[in-house]
Amino acid sequence: MNKFDLTKARPQWLVALVALMLTFALVVPGCASDTADDNAAETPTEKAAQAAEDEGPLEAGEAADDIVVPVSLALPEGADAEGKTIEVTVPDGATVLDALEATGWEVQSEDSEYGVFVTSINGIANGSEGEASGWVYTVNNEQVMEGCDAKTLAAGDSVQWSFYVG
Known about the structure:
single chain; five-stranded mixed sheet; globular; 8 strands
């Protein structure tokens, strides 16, 4: 008898071999589907939303997770530079200023009685296109009338900085 001839093997070995094959067949596809579900979200915003859904609501006093916020620059027609958008990751509750600084753009600001006032982004300074020109921002397409260091952000928010020429 050939030691690899399964036709003459004892029945308990055949049962064990079949059980092992069935176990392998059930476990491997199950692992693959978990991985596929974890990678279903494509954009950083979708991934953050999926993570928030998976984790459930926060308990009182529990620290919040990071959020992804798109930060855009809008420039007037004829400007030497073009507008752009960058998605940044900041802690939930970060300020508009935190998100702007997270872009890596060159930002200059100064304190005022109303909070921090952005004076220049990427070398484009307030007053460079006339006395009334300067940077203003919106959150979710709504103008905000408070300093960028005071306005906090939450998941789903977007920020747009526009250079106003008056």
